[in-house]
Design goal:
alpha/beta; single chain; about 45% helix; 6-stranded mixed sheet; 32 strands
Length: about 950
């Protein structure tokens, strides 16, 4: 072969290789003619019958739509899981052999948990329209995508209903599989957010017969809750209600809240089974909300037509609607996947190679190479289907979850409201509320007809009928037997016990009791320890003199207080020895001296102001001195007969009478106190002096007082002395701090009232410095606490609570008046310094004004006197004027004269000057005529 031939051959081979490569590239970019999609559900089931036909119709609609999957057809590969986790797993593995790009299903949450691990390895997305277990949303299952509403939202809807009717405890009846356990776990979390809880979990094993269901319901009926939440499978759940009806659990007083499985059963029933309907009257059920639309109505009509043609006896339910939208979700994702240039390829997983000759054929399972990209396309889904908006949120759940709330009655059910995570319970459709801002403060439902054809909202709780009496702990104290005491084996008496028994009788249900005494009777038990016994379920309740305090409320639930209590201080007092000079004790010596001096000062000031114009303040020197003293001291009794004439005198008198009023009132009050009130021995007069002192303090052993004094008031524990009995109180106070006793005792007022009823030589000092009450303690969130609080209020309003109090506490002969004072003190000048200073300044002001006016008058009077002197002697008068003006004696003589006389004399001198001036004028006229 020549060179030319070799070149020609090389060029031919190159052209052939290029053509082959071009054909390969062209083939790679072409869309496949068919894409396989799997489906897993139970054919013969309430959900499966509706979903199977819906999926088939959806595939037909997708293949008939030219706008989706242009030129590519969906090929549906369906497998029946036969309602078995094992068979479902096997069917899922067989489905994966058929190179499906996505699986619609599984229907069961249990199967979903198993095959999600297979999907993770093979990168095949699972889109379930019925597996509602919230646990499937975990990051452990990245290829699982729920195309219906998670039970997380359904349980929040149930919690909202429970909270709306103010129930606190529910009984959860559920199927004991992944679906049931996951839902109940979500229910517990949702109830906890509403301050409620699941009080009893009644688990029913899968595929249980009627005997097993009857046994489970019987145990549930023994519990206190009457709010039953039923979360089971649709195909076996109806047997629960027929069994409950036999156990008379569908009567008045019960509440049945059923998850969406029952709505699926009712919607799927072609004609209502009246026998079954009679067992479910009064139930409240939930159903996934799907807004009304033309697309939905068109699909429902088409489904019903095809079902009749195929003789399908089951009806369409909401799960069938979600199954239909799931197919469209897969179709949109595949379309976008192919439009982006991705290819549908599968590859073998070397880890699945069978080297031991097993017949499982694991090597036939292939990995979807574009699984991750397909999953991302699915998560970006956004279209409007027959169920409403189909879009996934950041939590991989459908957006805008909402439920219809139905009430079963007659031969069907009626809508009583809606729930959505946007606005909670409402009577308006969720699609309307989603157009408004979130608002859960105005939740509302229409009226419900409850089991037993009752329209009254059930209490939701009764005393448990389990044959066990209420275990009531009672402190066995060393003293204060009036409050609570042990009368014999299992028998207790006292004021607290009588109040408790009276309240129990008012409850609308019987409550068997068993009193359990805590303590040996020689030493007071630790009260917070009894509360802890209630908290850890060793006791059901604690009854006695239990103060409602902070550390107690953190452990247990308290009722409404049935008696007011608070810490007070009690101290020994002594009687005042009668004295003949007791009337001098209200004021100190300084107070007496200053008061007397002020009396004299005011008398002198008023005399000066009235002397020149008032005849009653004139006369002989002896008479005027007597008037000063008489007037000043008679004002103390408002009996002065002298009238004041001058404006300044009246002003001073008004102020002085006010001062006298204050002085006499204070004197009277202090004297009354001194003559009637006992005096303290210790000098402690209240809380402030107690804290600042270093004296020992007694307290009742076992109560919260020690904790309060040390933690709240920062009193050293070394100052505190624990006491148990009333006799211990008296002995410690009588001995006093110097003899190993205490200076005061700090305890709650009811105890001190009992103590002072026996010992009259002690008194409460200061004011009550805490405010709490006594209540009965129950376990946290116990409905008995609320009912007992209502009963206590009823006892109070009827007056029976006061009558029980009067029967146990009689006022003794040495009873004291709470309003009496203790430790009265003498009044010193410091209490009146401001008043006295004000009075003195006013007197000084009046005197200044008076003397300025006198000096001005004296000057005018002196000038008029000088003008009356003869003209020849004018020089001498001018020389003598200064000495006259400066004469203090002349000023005093001027002050002593009557003001009327001064004015009359000055007027006469003025008239004489006018006459002299007129005479001089006439003489000048005559001389000019000549």
């Amino acid at each position: 072969m020549g060179a030319t031939q070799l070149v020609s051959l090389f060029l031919a081979l190159t052209a052939a290789a290029a053509a082959a490569a071009a054909r390969a590239v062209s083939a790679a970019g072409a869309r496949p003619s068919e894409v396989a999609v799997g489906a897993l559900f139970t054919y013969d089931s309430v959900i499966g019958r509706a979903a199977r036909l819906a999926v088939e119709l959806a595939v037909d609609d997708v293949n008939a739509d030219d706008t989706v999957l242009k030129g590519t057809k969906l090929s549906l590969k369906s497998h029946d899981t036969n309602c078995s986790a094992f068979i479902g797993t096997v069917e899922a593995l067989q489905l994966m052999e058929e190179n499906v790009v996505a699986v619609i299903g599984p229907q069961s949450s249990g199967i979903g948990h198993v095959i999600s691990h297979v999907a993770n390895e093979l990168h095949v997305p699972l889109l379930s329209f019925a597996a509602t277990d919230p646990d499937l949303s975990a990051l452990e299952y990245p290829y699982f995508l729920r195309t219906t509403i998670s039970d997380y939202f359904q349980m929040n809807a149930i919690a909202s209903i429970v909270d709306y009717y103010q129930w606190k405890r529910v009984t959860a009846i559920f199927v004991d599989d992944d679906y049931g356990r996951g839902g109940v776990s979500a229910l517990g979390d949702a109830l906890a957010a509403k301050r409620a809880k699941i009080s009893y979990k009644a688990a029913i094993p899968p595929n249980s017969n009627s005997d097993v269901i009857s046994d489970v319901l019987f145990r549930a009926n023994m519990m206190e809750s009457r709010v039953m939440v039923v979360h089971v499978n649709p195909d076996t759940g109806m047997r629960i209600f027929s069994t409950a009806n036999k156990l008379q659990m569908m009567a008045s007083g019960y509440v049945w809240i059923v998850t969406d499985w029952l709505a699926a059963v009712l919607d799927s029933s072609a004609s209502g089974d009246l026998k079954d309907m009679s067992h479910i009257q009064g139930l409240v059920i939930l159903r996934q909300h799907t807004p009304e639309s033309d697309a939905k109505n068109k699909f429902v009509s088409k489904w019903n037509t095809v079902a009749r043609n195929r003789s399908v006896t089951s009806g369409l339910n909401s799960y069938g609607l979600y199954a239909y939208d799931t197919v469209w979700t897969v179709a949109h994702a595949i379309d976008q996947f192919l439009n982006s240039g991705q290819q549908i390829n599968f590859s073998t997983d070397p880890r699945l190679h069978d080297s031991s000759g097993s017949g499982l054929r694991l090597s036939t399972l292939k990995v979807f190479d574009g699984g991750e990209q397909m999953l991302q396309r699915l998560l970006l889904t956004n279209f409007t289907g027959v169920t409403g908006p189909v879009q996934f949120g950041s939590d991989r759940n459908l957006v805008r979850p909402s439920y219809d709330i139905l009430n079963v009655g007659g031969s069907g059910s009626r809508l009583i409201g809606y729930w959505s995570n946007h606005s909670g319970l409402s009577v308006a459709a969720p699609e309307i509320l989603y157009q408004k801002p979130p608002n859960t403060s105005a939740e509302q439902l229409y009226n419900v007809v409850w089991p037993g054809n009752s329209t009254t909202i059930p209490k939701g709780w009764v005393f448990p009928n389990n044959g066990q009496p209420l275990r009531v702990g009672v402190p066995n104290k060393a003293s204060f037997k009036e409050l609570v005491s042990k009368g014999g084996p299992g028998n207790v008496t006292g004021y607290c016990i009588d109040v408790f028994n009276a309240a129990i009788k008012l409850l609308p249900y019987p409550v068997p009791l068993q009193f359990i005494t805590i303590g040996d009777g020689t030493k007071n038990p630790i009260y917070i320890g009894i509360i802890r016994m209630v908290a850890n379920n060793s006791l059901d309740a604690a009854v006695g003199d239990f103060a409602i305090v902070r550390n107690g409320t953190a452990l247990a639930e308290y009722t409404q207080p049935y008696v007011e209590a608070g810490l007070v201080i009690v101290a020994p007092v002594k009687q005042v020895t009668p004295s003949a000079w007791a009337f001098l004790k209200p004021f100190t010596l300084e107070m007496w001296c200053v008061t007397g001096a002020l009396f004299i000062l005011v008398g002198v000031v008023v005399w000066l102001l009235e002397h020149r114009i008032n005849e009653e303040f004139r006369g002989s020197p002896r008479r005027q001195v007597a008037t000063i003293f008489w007037f000043s001291f008679s004002t103390m009794f408002y009996s002065h007969r002298e009238n004041t004439v001058s404006a300044l005198g009246r002003f001073v008198l008004i102020i002085w009478l006010f001062v006298v009023l204050i002085i006499t009132s204070s004197y009277t009050a202090s004297l009354t106190s001194i003559l009637t009130v006992q005096q303290l021995d210790t000098g402690i007069t209240g809380l402030d002096s107690l804290i600042s002192s270093s004296l020992p303090i007694g307290y009742q052993n076992g109560k919260f007082t020690k904790r309060y004094l040390t933690l709240e008031l920062n009193i050293p524990e070394s100052r505190l002395v624990a006491l148990n009995t009333i006799q211990d109180y008296a002995d410690a106070l009588n001995r006093g701090p110097k003899n190993g006793g205490v200076a005061v005792i700090v305890d709650e007022k009811p105890y001190i009232d009992i103590f002072l009823a026996h010992y009259c030589n002690f008194r409460i000092v200061g004011q009550q410095f805490t405010r709490e009450g006594w209540g009965f303690s129950f376990q946290r969130d116990s409905p008995l606490a609320e009912d007992m609080s209502t009963a206590i209020l009823q006892l109070s309003e009827s007056g029976q609570l006061q009558r029980i109090h009067d029967e146990w506490f009689k006022r003794p002969s040495c009873a004291y008046d709470d309003d009496s004072q203790v430790g009265a003190t003498r009044l010193g000048i410091g209490s009146f310094s401001g008043l006295f200073l004000m009075c003195a300044l006013i007197c000084l002001f009046a005197l200044v004004v008076f003397f300025v006016r006198i000096c001005w008058q004296y000057n005018q009077y002196s000038n008029s006197d000088a003008e009356d002197e003869p003209g020849a002697a004018n020089a001498d008068v001018v020389q003598r004027r200064p000495s006259r003006l400066g004469s203090f004696k002349g000023l005093l003589q001027f002050v002593d004269k009557k003001e009327e006389e001064i004015r009359r004399k000055m007027k006469r001198r003025s008239s004489d000057r006018d006459n002299q001036a007129a005479g001089s004028s006439d003489a000048l006229s005559v001389s000019s005529a000549y």
